[in-house]
Amino acid sequence: MIPRGETVASFESYKQAQSAVDTLAQADFPVKQISIVGDGLKSVERVTGRLSYGRTAGAGALSGAWLGLFFGLLLIIINPAANITFVGAAVLIGAAFGMMFSVVSYALNRRRRDFTSVMQVIATSYAVTVAPELANRARNLLDASPQQQQQQQ
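The line above is the sequence of General stress protein 17M-like domain-containing protein; the predicted structure tokens follow.
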């Protein structure tokens, strides 16, 4: 649900909007009445590298090893009589299965996507909104704030 209210300030970055909310919070403003709304959302996918069998196998082995470590430590917590050898075995087995599953998955999808990426949603501007009955108070607090005056310059 999109928050309802009046926009009391707009900023180009999320950090600036966050600073405005901090200013209001420090002035004992009812923070439950504040929202930061991102406008002009854009989806950005940053390509981080090229996929290969080696890179896929390494990433799969690493994630499988982490899962194996988790289960190995869980086994020791549940059964204190188990020794550290079980943890090592669980890490190795997890790495092997992780490597196998990621290589098979890559082989099946190879020509569709041969790169790695990170997806991000970015807003072009951020509006600080508050309940209509508190809008004038919020504007006055933000106008009087030295931090906000520096950001506006």
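Note on the example: The longest strand covers residues 42-50. The CA atoms of residues 19 and 147 lie 8 Å apart.
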